[in-house]
Design a protein that fits this description.
The protein is built from 13 helices and eight strands. With 396 residues, it is of the alpha/beta class. Bound molecules: manganese (II) ion. This is Agmatinase.
Length: 396
């Protein structure tokens, strides 16, 4: 009896509530809660809750900046798993949202400056046939570059580099994937802009000559995440003596590796230079090296210390903190960026707290900020001249 006495009022109120709902039969969610934005923990996981389109199947889809996952990891020398990097980066980006994207350091919300930013999903690369996968990445990137930009006016306002065809092409931020993906990407970027400078953040040089790289038992085996920049140099994708590594601290087979690196056209900043010279010195050295021409920024998350980013394929101790790296990036705002990537995130080695994925996703945020801030301090006419003239493969 006591149970009834407590239950009856509840039942009565439930019935009344049902009746109240019955009097609003149409769309109670929309009428009371419609338009509620997704929270950081709700919704389908796209990068930073951006709108998603399968752009590769919809060639007419316009965008100014695209996030493109490249889940490829069949050319790694140590720990595999970077095929889950795009998924990890999207998960690590969940607390980024366009309506909550303002940086008090940079004074900008890169999601809300008028650039149309889309998450275009992933390139569905073949996991069994590496040459075909590389071909797929190249085809996908070329197709993406040929999508129409959403706002030519905005591109012009930001002083963005035009392609060799005199047209604006969208910017693509690639989410790796192991670092090999950058070879087919540079191939496509070179066709659009001519030879480019590369700013390469990494613990490793990745310019190893395949003839001296262990495991290169065949032509195909010689194309991997430690040799791709050598191939890019040989193919003429990279502007000679205008590229630079930052954060190098791996061990080498000997001085010959560094001789090969100079041959491939790179200068380098050691990890420990930060203690002797500081962040601004590093940024100035990078800017002086790449100049005003088109630049690709390629960032291996192992440039950060494994204490901050354990989830990577070839970790090296003694790296930069997340804050040091991001401070360097803040000092590089205004460069003539035509493509960027964040690679080698291998989420299986992350902590449950996703420390690596969150750091990697914030690097993508910084790249978006670079693009949203635009190109500063140069004459666009001279930039396109340096992109199209003077530096051909024949001069390498
Ligand atoms: Mn590396």
């Amino acid at each position: 009896m006591r149970a009834h006495s407590t239950l009856l009022p509840f039942l009565a109120s439930s019935v009344l509530a049902s009746l109240a709902l019955a009097r609003v039969p149409t769309d109670p969610w929309l009428s009371e809660f419609g338009g509620t934005p997704d929270l950081s923990f709700s919704g389908i996981t796209t990068f930073a809750h951006l709108p998603h389109s399968r752009c590769l199947d919809r060639p007419d889809t316009p965008f100014d900046v695209a996030i493109l996952g490249v889940p490829f990891d069949t050319a790694v020398s140590y720990r595999p798993g970077a095929r889950f990097g795009p998924n990890g980066l999207r998960s690590g980006s969940r607390r980024q949202r366009p309506e909550r994207g303002y940086s008090s350091v940079l004074g900008i919300n890169p999601y809300m400056t008028g650039l149309n930013i889309l998450d275009c999903g992933d390139v569905p690369v073949n996991p069994f046939d590496t040459p075909t996968a590389i071909k797929q990445i190249n085809a996908a990137y070329r197709s993406m570059l040929n999508h129409p930009v959403a706002s030519e006016e905005k591109m012009k306002e930001l002083n963005m580099q035009k392609g060799l065809d005199g047209e604006y092409h969208p910017r693509i931020i690639s989410l790796g994937g192991d670092h090999t993906i950058v070879l087919p990407i540079l191939d496509a970027v070179h066709d659009t802009y001519g030879p480019v400078s590369v700013i390469h953040f990494d613990a490793h040089i990745d310019t190893w000559n395949p003839n001296r790289y262990y495991g290169s038992v065949s032509v195909q085996a010689g194309v991997n995440h430690g040799t791709f920049f050598w191939h890019a140099y040989e193919q003429g994708f990279i502007k000679h003596n205008a590229s630079i590594h930052a954060g190098i601290r791996t061990k080498f087979s000997g001085p010959v590796d560094l001789t090969d690196d100079v041959t491939a056209g790179f200068d380098l900043v050691h990890t420990m230079d930060i203690d002797e010279h500081g962040v601004e010195w590093i940024a100035e050295k990078i800017k002086a090296r790449v100049g005003d021409g088109p630049v690709v920024i390629s960032l291996d998350v192992d440039v950060m210390d494994p204490a901050y980013v354990p989830a990577t394929g070839t970790p090296e101790s003694g790296g930069w903190t997340t804050r040091e790296l991001r401070w360097i990036l803040y000092n590089l705002m205004g460069l003539n960026i035509v493509a960027c990537d964040v690679v080698e995130l291998s989420p299986a080695y992350d902590t449950n707290a996703e420390i690596s994925a969150i750091a990697a996703a914030d690097i993508v945020y910084d790249f978006l900020a670079m693009l949203a801030i635009g190109v500063k301090g140069q004459d666009p006419a001279s930039a396109s001249a340096s992109a199209s003239g003077g530096h051909t493969a024949d001069e390498l």
